[in-house]
């Protein structure tokens, strides 16, 4: 049995307009430091992160405590999206049709086509228990894929910043359980 810990980033500073470079807020940094307690007694062999600042900063205290390097992977980034006033309604529609997208944004199918192979590559290139840090929508699309559709829009709505999920994988690389663990 192998465990993969999926970490959704902590609270981002929304005053920074560039999505990729937006850092964590002070409260977000405090929560990121608190996450280290979840991993200190685990046998973590590697840490992977989206290249976005908020994801990297979320796992940095854990990496420092465990004396591990954070490997960034571009395909773990968040879904390219355009802010809309009807954002929640639009996301609900995207969950109904993974090919749906507005001009200038990625569909959920686009995200799935990049994040699933990225996850598979990370899984195949590592051994033991690892941490993968990313974003709510991108991780949700991955979870939806891994659970054969059991992870849904309502599960996405219940995600926190930060949040930690543990995926239990069999020796045959099959997900046998996905659970949200307390942060």
UniProtKB/TrEMBL annotation:
Q: Which GO terms describe its molecular function?
A: phosphatase activity
How is this protein named in the record? Phosphoglycerate mutase
Q: Which Pfam families match?
A: His_Phos_1
Record-level GO cellular component terms: cytoplasm
